[in-house]
Amino acid sequence: MKIKKIIYAIFTLIVIVLSFFVVTKIEYFNNNDAIHIAFVGPLTGEDKKQGISMLQAIEIYIDHINKNRNIDQKEIIIDYFDDKNNPSIAKEVALKIAQSPAVAVIGHRRSDCSIAAGKIYKKHQIPAITPTSSVMQVTQDNEWYFRTFFDNQLQGRLLANYAKEFLLQPNEPISIIRIDTSYGNELADVFRKSLKKMEVVVKYQWTLPENESKQRQEIEKVVSFLQANSNDAGIIFLATQRSEGVKLVKSIKDAGIKNILIAPDSYANFHESFKNYSKEKKLSGYYTEGIYITSFLLDVANKYATQFNSIYKEKYQENLPSAAFYAVDAARVIVEAIRQTKEQELGSFRNNLKNTIANFNKPEKSVKGTTGPNYFDKNGNISKPISMGTYKKGHLISAPLQLISSNEKEQQYKTVVYTGVQFNGISDIDLYKSTYIPDFYLWFRFQKEHNGNIIKPQDIKFINAVKPAVLKELILEKTIDGQTYLLYRIHGIPFKEIYHSSDVFVDRHDLGISFYHSQLDKDKIIYVNDVLGTGQEQNLFANNFSGKEEQKLISLTGWKTTEINFFQNVTEKNPLGNPDYLGENAIEYSTFNANVVIKSNTYAYHALIPSEFTTEFFIFTFIVTLLLIVLSYTKTKYLKLLWFFQAIFAVLLIIATEITLSSVKINMVTIRSIVIITFDMLWWLIPAFLLNIAVKRFLWIPLIERAGHSVPALIKFLVSFIIYCLALFGIIAFVFEQPTTSLFASGGLLAFIFGLAQQTSLGNIFSGIALSVERSFRVGDWVKIGDFEDGQVVDINWRTTKIQTGNEYIISIPNNVVSTSDIYNFSYPDNQYWLQFNLLLDPKYDPRIIEQIIIEAIFSVEENIVKDAKPYILLEETTGKAINTLVANYAVFFKTENYLYKAAVLRNVWQHIWSHLSQEGIIIPTEPYNKDVPKKSVAFTSKQLNSIVINDHLQNMITNK
């Protein structure tokens, strides 16, 4: 009873400790002191897809921040609001946000909404960052508003310069279509003024009203005019929002107007609006082909953007729109500002937060983002490079040439090199040396000349090649539409691993290639992923492999390819006194990266435990495991139940220890390998240890209790030896990856020799184990085994079973004989059994009367007769030996109990039968029995008797049962 109380106390303690950690975490994660950030954008209406994608991207980023924050950092919660892209609604929503616990705002999408809401934010002093509003007025004279997006001043000048530099023919004019909003008017004015400085003629200008019905009428007039005067209109600049742009472009394309179209950022991803039109279905890109726009482009994205797009695509099965990247950067800036700002009451916190954001005003103070570094000028605007994209075959890709300066007097540009890689396979992977040999195709498409200089791909340098890799094997070269195409194959050259984690149990390796042009820096050429050339969508989480394709790419047991990422980045090199870079600390080169990520599922179970619970989970499992170990050394009858808890918590403790160590950075490969191998071995040894304990508690102890003898040490040793040998073989085969065939062969030979030598002894031992498990009989039971005389079991050991007969001598029967013989137990399931004897009488007596007399005589015996079981009496005819006459042979079966008194019961029954027969004048013959008549009484179990009655003598029964 005392032990039972101890068990209850321990498990109560476990529940209390676990509840403490859970409640602590729940309180921690759901406390009212969480920091709130407001997001506001179009979550319903025509532009809802863009708004929802921005919110989803922000939520992914904030979830990541919350999962990886420290214990002293508060949870961040996103509160979202819908402004429906309506300035009036935006003002109402802004007032709600100002009165909410939000410390900062991400929004709005449209400039007119940002301008309307900005007055509220300024009045109530809450910092806001817009990810897409480009009108200058949004941040002018409002120190509380910032933007992670380029403004119309930069965008309008770039569009004008790009059109002049790369798109316009000599003396060709430009026409402008604008929407009558602050966005459209400002953008068109900046564009027109920039063209005027460059002496480019603006031929025609049209203004579309905001009113939808009037807008459609005006679009029809514009398109009708362009059909008649398209040659005079020249390039057409569309200074409108996305919604008007879709109607405008569709009308222009349906009218067959071929003029080049150039548009602002609002046209990014607008190609999706045409996918349901019949012409677009027949010819992908029918409506968007050749349109030039300013946009954030995935094919020139950095590693952060590539990885984030992969996460988003995995969750939502589509690529992240360009606007959402700027929204994520706004969230990054706010989160970093929160980390650097001391929290106070809401008003002071908002003010300090605004000052912290404003202090991100230099490149060295910038916040790294998916669209580049984020830092602001005195007006809250950001300085980021603007890329020009063009729609090709329904995809938005980088334009072949990019401007790097908006200075009208001196234009500088860089050449885009569309780059593709296709891996044929990766061999000779050595994870310890971090080397491998890739076999891949590499191709380029580009304008061959840059400022009169020939671009030579042979000048590229592989950053991670073990030895210099030169492009020698040129497979194909051709020039089409002014672009040169070159295809190479590289194989047989060892490369170094691009990235590997220094976390102990993180099995991720980034293979692949990385290179840059050694003669031309990033201001001259930039490498981008060749989306069209690879037949992929604009998708940097490019490859999802089937198992068959995985085997083709890598041949590494237990590993699989999970993704391939293509992205451009920048690498810095020392100028080494190069006169072109005097005064600069480093030269920046554009790099192209093809990352092959391989992972092992060995430690996939780590993801089951949230990272924020790691420490508490380890402490909890460690304490409980210690308590269970201590409890196992006490005398308790609950050892079997205890074993299950010990097994569960032993496994949990290993996992908890691994997860705790996984956060430790170990740069030395040798130490990391030792730690990993140690835990891999523990995953075999701990289960073997637990199995050995289970054998003791579930087999040896019950056998000892039943048999009354201890288990031979040899048997215990053999079983333990087999268990640990199997664990050892597992370690050799799966941890050290060595063949075990020879070990199994040697072990099998030894086992065969030993078994042959001890064949009889082992047979008796294992038969004894089987008998004890089956419990066919126990010590003290009365049994009959095979042809041996019946008797009482007095001993069961690991070699023989000993029976004491009625004559007081002992029969020792080998266990292997016992296990193969028929066993009749007269003491199980109760101590009742059937006795039989034969009675010979003259056949002249009426059998019915004889039966009645015998039954009355048996029931008249007072002791050891089971009165509720009617005797069976069978009648057979036989011939007497001394007289040539027939005699009636009555086989009498009656139920008795306690086999110990079998002789006394028979004696009493005979006496009563004799007495009852004599009283009725019935004489029992004295001549000897025929040899076929049984001379002794026989005992039967109930099952035996049923067989005799039913199968052998049913036809001779005198009466029914």
Helix and strand arrangement:
Blueprint (H helix, E strand, L loop, with lengths): L1 H28 L5 E7 L6 H20 L8 E7 L4 H12 L3 E5 L4 H14 L3 E3 L14 E3 L4 H16 L6 E6 L2 H16 L4 E7 L3 H22 L1 E5 L2 H13 L6 E3 L14 H5 L9 E4 L7 H14 L5 H19 L5 H13 L28 E6 L2 E4 L2 E3 L9 E18 L4 E13 L1 E2 L2 E2 L5 E3 L11 E7 L2 E8 L4 E2 L2 E2 L7 E10 L7 E5 L1 H4 L12 H7 L5 E15 L13 E14 L13 H19 L6 H24 L6 H39 L5 H23 L5 H17 L1 H16 L7 E4 L5 E6 L3 E6 L4 E5 H5 L3 E3 L6 E10 L5 H13 L12 E8 L6 E12 L4 H18 L18 E3 L1 H11 L9
Parallel strand pairs: 1-2, 1-3, 3-4, 4-5, 6-7, 6-8, 8-9, 9-10, 14-24
Antiparallel strand pairs: 10-11, 11-12, 13-14, 14-15, 15-20, 15-21, 16-17, 18-23, 19-20, 22-23, 23-26, 25-26, 27-28, 27-31, 28-29, 29-30, 32-34, 32-35, 33-34
Outline of this structure?
Helix content is 40%, strand content 23%. The chain is built from 24 helices and 35 strands.
Q: Low-confidence spans: pLDDT under 50, at least 5 residues? A: 26-32, 537-551, 928-935, 953-961
- Rg, Cα atoms, Å: 47 Å
Gross morphology is elongated
Q: How much beta, percentage-wise?
A: 15-25%
Strand arrangement across the biggest beta sheet? 7-6-8-9-10-11-12
In helices, the fraction of residues equals 40-55%
Average predicted confidence as pLDDT: 83
Summary tags:
7-stranded mixed β-sheet, 35 strands, alpha+beta, disordered C terminus, single chain, elongated, 961 residues
Question: Your description of this structure?
Answer:
This protein has 961 residues and is α+β, with helices and mostly antiparallel strands. It has a 7-stranded mixed sheet, sandwiched between helices. Strands 13, 14, 15, 19, 20, 21 and 24 form a 7-stranded mixed sheet that branches. A hairpin with a 4-residue loop joins strand 14 (413-430) and strand 15 (435-447).
